[in-house]
Specification:
By secondary structure, this protein is mostly helical. It contains 2 helices and no strands. The longest helix has 22 residues, at 3-24. It is flat, with a radius of gyration of 14 Å.
Length: 49
């Protein structure tokens, strides 16, 4: 497995863990998606300043 593929697998595992933890806390996948979109928007706005 190449270095890049290994990084993708590790990232995928982190996302799976994030979603599983969110679900165990009663947070839906849609709520996680909305949160991440909001954080992304805020970061974009800060970068434009």
């Amino acid at each position: 497995m190449t270095q890049k593929m290994q990084e993708i697998v590790e990232l995928d595992n982190e996302w799976i863990e994030l979603i599983m933890n969110a679900r165990s806390m009663g947070i839906t996948i849609e709520e996680v998606r909305l949160f991440l979109n909001e954080v992304n928007k805020q970061q974009c706005l800060k970068e434009k300043e």
